[in-house]
Design a protein that fits this description.
This protein is α+β, with helices and mostly antiparallel strands. The protein has 17 helices and 15 strands. The strands form four sheets. The chain has a six-stranded antiparallel sheet with strand order 5-4-3-8-7-6. Strands 10-12-13-15-14 form a five-stranded mixed sheet. A two-stranded antiparallel sheet has the order 1-2.
């Protein structure tokens, strides 16, 4: 548990020391030269190094992937530099160090009066030069490099193991029995052969060295030495060399098998990392990985969009602290680390951007380190979701459920309405007094109204399949405007309340003529209902936005729609009129969506008279010939 009595800074220092002790206990000396885990996110991540976001994001993803795999011992670099190459380099380093030690030993012996012969000194210095040279310029040194069991090439074997045997054997033979003993140096080429060569070749090397020792012992016997002592020592040394060869070969074989298993595991781990990254990248919810210092280690595109007012934010890594808009988010992260628990449903956090723009996020926090993992680095994963999107999804789900229920109810109402209309028609035939005729008319009017509502609900019921065709938007919009103007009693002219702007060329769109007529008449009726009598109070514009979109605009100069009404414009059963059904704009939106179109309301600038503007964006299809033009009654 976190000690709440200590300041956050002291807690962070203690946790950092605890993590350092836990993670470095199993590291080798070579780990002291590796990059610190935090080096991937050093600094605030806000500097501009001239690279675009895509490049930086790709590099950071690669670094994070390599870091993840390296923590499991399966980094991609291990496949490029195999264990065989690393061991080969280690032996070259040992030979270079042994060459330097050999020269130093001969020099020290000369200082203490045991001056070696010139040939021995020349052999020692020559060996040191050759060993250091091969260490500095090793080349590949591997024959059949792509095989499952790589081995030393012939020239490399001669330059490495062969030179060792010749030099050490010469030193052993040329040195008197009472002087320096160089026999122990022969262990190095035997060990090298056991690890880096095939078993038969390694045993042959050990046998050759054993024969050299026995030959040197026989020379000693010929010179008058004790035969039993010399031959026994040579035999024991040869036996030991054979044992070393066999053990080294077994260890090398085991290492090769483990490396092969590690390569297979590495490939699986790499695929898993790529799959996880792909899933996170495609998530609709924002995902942030944040450490105690407030550095964002990873961020998917959804999170980068939520953290900025518009567009796509910078890729990770970057610092959360220091940005005014993210102050509440930083406070939330610090609170999460302090409490170490978080509500399952999350909490709401408000981001305050420039120009008074705000965005409310639902933040859920999960932690990567459990109570049984004190040595792991503590990170928290933030799952971000826009509250407005959550509310929109909830509203859509409710609307879908309500639509299904409404469709069922409307279907059941049809038959009673037909019976009521038929009975009212019979009553109207026998109505003789004015009061009776007025009552039958009232019944007929309300039956028609209910019938229209039922038809509207049934038309936008889920499951309706529309066979979309291609129409000429220029001709159809002109014809619809002509019919509507004729029915409304409007005339053309400079002082006309109704203005229409159509392109000269035909514009093909994917839509149904009757449904387009219904959408336009609904929008035109609404525009005229709230417009003034000034010239051009109701205006229709049709234009091609680009090669894929045709825009239809119907605007009016009436009072602007309040904000508390605008958010519910396209929701069903919402109306500002007492006798309105609230289905007009909802049906328009449903009809547009069936053809891949969209409808929206926008408020035009104050410099324009017609500020209320309903815009319908339709899918464009080329190759439709012109049919009819705009016709108004005279």
């Amino acid at each position: 548990m976190v000690d709440a009595a200590r300041p956050p800074f002291e807690r962070r220092k203690t946790d950092r020391r605890r993590r350092a002790r836990g993670t470095r206990a199993d590291e080798s000396w070579f780990g002291a030269f590796s990059a610190d885990p935090d080096s991937l996110t050093s600094g605030d991540g806000l500097r501009d190094d001239g690279r675009d976001d895509a490049t930086r994001h790709a590099e950071v993803d690669s670094a994070l992937e390599a870091r993840l795999l390296s923590q499991a011992g399966l980094s991609g670099r291990a496949s490029d530099v195999s264990a065989f190459h690393r061991i080969y380099r280690a032996f070259l380093s040992a030979r270079a160090a042994l060459g330097v030690a050999l020269v130093a030993t001969l020099a020290a012996a000369g200082l203490f009066g045991a001056r070696p012969s010139g040939v021995v000194a020349w052999i020692g210095v020559s060996y040191a030069v050759l060993a250091i040279g091969l260490w500095l310029w090793p080349g590949t040194g591997v024959a059949d490099e792509h095989a499952e069991s790589p081995r030393l090439g012939r020239l490399t074997w001669l330059a490495c193991i062969g030179v060792d045997i010749i030099c050490f054997a010469a030193l052993h033979v040329l040195t008197p029995s009472g002087g320096l003993n160089f026999a122990a140096l022969l262990v190095l080429p035997v060990l090298t052969a056991g690890v880096l060569t095939r078993r038969l070749q390694a045993l042959a090397t050990a046998a050759g060295v054993a024969l050299l020792l026995l030959g040197n012992a026989w020379l000693g016997v010929m010179a008058g030495g004790d035969a039993a002592n010399l031959m026994t020592q040579a035999g024991l040394a040869g036996s030991g060399l054979f044992v070393i060869t066999v053990l080294a070969g077994e260890l090398a074989s085991r290492l090769a098998r483990e490396e092969l298993t590690a390569r297979d595991s590495m490939e699986l781990a790499r695929q898993q990392v790529q799959l996880n990254r792909l899933v996170i990248e495609e998530m609709q919810d924002g995902v942030l990985v944040v450490d105690r210092a407030g550095r964002v280690r990873a961020a998917n595109p959804a999170a980068r969009r939520l953290l900025v007012r518009r567009g796509l934010g910078r890729p990770a890594p970057f610092q959360l602290r220091g940005v005014p808009a993210w102050e509440q988010l930083v406070t939330t992260v610090e609170r999460g680390f302090h409490e170490a628990v978080w509500p399952e449903a999350g909490r709401d956090v408000m981001l305050q951007f420039e120009q008074g723009t705000t965005r409310t996020l639902r933040v859920r926090i999960r932690f990567t380190r459990g109570a049984d993992e004190p040595s792991a680095e503590e990170l928290c994963v933030l799952l971000l979701e826009d509250v407005r999107s959550m509310q929109a999804r909830t509203r859509q789900e409710k609307l879908a459920a309500m639509g299904r229920v409404s469709a069922g109810i409307a279907h059941e109402i049809r038959n009673p309405l037909a019976a009521i209309a038929q009975a009212n028609g019979l009553l109207a035939e026998d109505a003789t007094t004015p009061s009776q005729q007025q009552l039958t008319r009232m019944v007929a009017d309300n039956v028609k109204r209910l019938t229209r509502i039922v038809e509207d609900v049934m038309e936008v019921a889920p499951g309706t399949v529309i066979d979309a065709g291609v129409i000429d938007a220029t001709a159809e919009v002109g014809a619809i405007c002509s019919d509507w103007a004729r029915a409304a009693g409007l005339e053309l002219g400079d002082n006309s309340q109704f203005k229409v702007e159509l392109p000269a060329e035909p514009l093909g769109v994917t839509f149904d003529v009757e449904h387009l007529r219904r959408v336009m008449i609904n929008l035109l009726d609404n525009a005229r209902r709230h417009a003034t009598a000034a010239p051009g109070a109701v205006r229709v514009r049709l234009l091609a936005l680009d090669e894929a979109t045709v825009q239809l605009s119907i605007s009016s100069d009436g009072p602007t729609i309040p904000d508390d009404v605008e958010r519910y414009l396209f929701e069903p059963f919402f109306s500002t009129r007492s006798r309105g059904t609230g289905l007009g704009l909802y049906i328009c939106r449903q009809l547009c969506e069936q053809y891949g179109a969209s409808i929206d309301y926008r408020l035009r600038p104050v410099t324009e008279a017609n500020r209320n503007d309903f815009v319908v964006n339709m899918r464009r299809r080329n190759g439709v010939p012109a049919e009819t033009g705009l016709q108004f009654p005279k």
